[in-house]
Write a structure and sequence with these properties.
magnesium, Hxn_phspho_trans, 193 residues, Hypoxanthine phosphoribosyltransferase, six-stranded mixed sheet, three-stranded antiparallel sheet, alpha/beta, Rossmann fold, 4 helices
Length: 193
């Protein structure tokens, strides 16, 4: 954000609605698609015990809902990767692992759960790192894909929604750490990007 206090002033005046241009994906659409993804993952991993690796923090809400719809026995672990500064269009730095897995992935079927794939650099970095640890398989499940911003190819096995090049928040995605708790995904007004 060019002026963080402007954002905080808007939040104080009207909460998230002061920043919301429009709802892009409703709560009902999210619930339906997450259930469909869970069913497909359950089918694909039948007879296996996948390790769901969630990238913190944005993927937590998606992971929690997705797990409810996966009937295959599974394990969960978390990673945190830092690559962005503050603001909707902050410059990208070299991805850096700030929290690594506690689980050895060698020989495991790993499903990386991510909230949004934008340029692709962060997820590509994580995939390359995990591949060196010799998993039996390594796939990506992304809630959102923003192909217009892609700079690096990312193989997405399970996708919730493809979205246009707009800055979004809600359902785990933050607006400068605010509003991850919203049950829908909304587009941020241009003046707050």
């Amino acid at each position: 954000m060019a002026n963080l206090s402007r954002l905080e002033d808007a939040i104080a005046r009207g909460g998230y609605s002061a920043l919301l241009d429009r709802v892009l994906i409703t709560e009902e659409q999210l619930n339906r698609r997450v259930a469909e993804l869970g069913a497909q993952i359950s089918q694909d991993y039948a007879g296996k015990t996948p390790l769901l690796v969630c990238l913190l923090r944005g993927g937590v809400m998606f992971l929690a809902d997705l797990m409810k719809h996966i009937s295959a026995p599974h394990h969960v672990d978390f990673m945190a990767v830092s690559s962005y500064g503050v603001g909707a269009r902050a410059t990208r730095g070299q991805p850096r692992i700030t929290l690594d897995l506690n689980t050895d992935v060698r020989g495991r079927h790993v499903l990386l759960v991510e909230d949004i794939i934008d340029s692709g650099h962060t997820i590509d970095h994580v995939l390359r790192l995990l591949q060196t640890r010799e998993p039996a398989s390594l796939r990506v499940c992304a809630l959102l894909n923003k192909p217009a911003r892609r700079e690096v190819y990312v193989p997405i096995s399970y996708l919730g929604f493809e979205i246009p090049d707009e800055f979004v928040f809600g359902y785990g995605l933050d607006l400068d750490e605010y509003f991850r708790n919203l049950p829908f995904i909304g587009v941020v007004k241009k003046e707050y990007q």
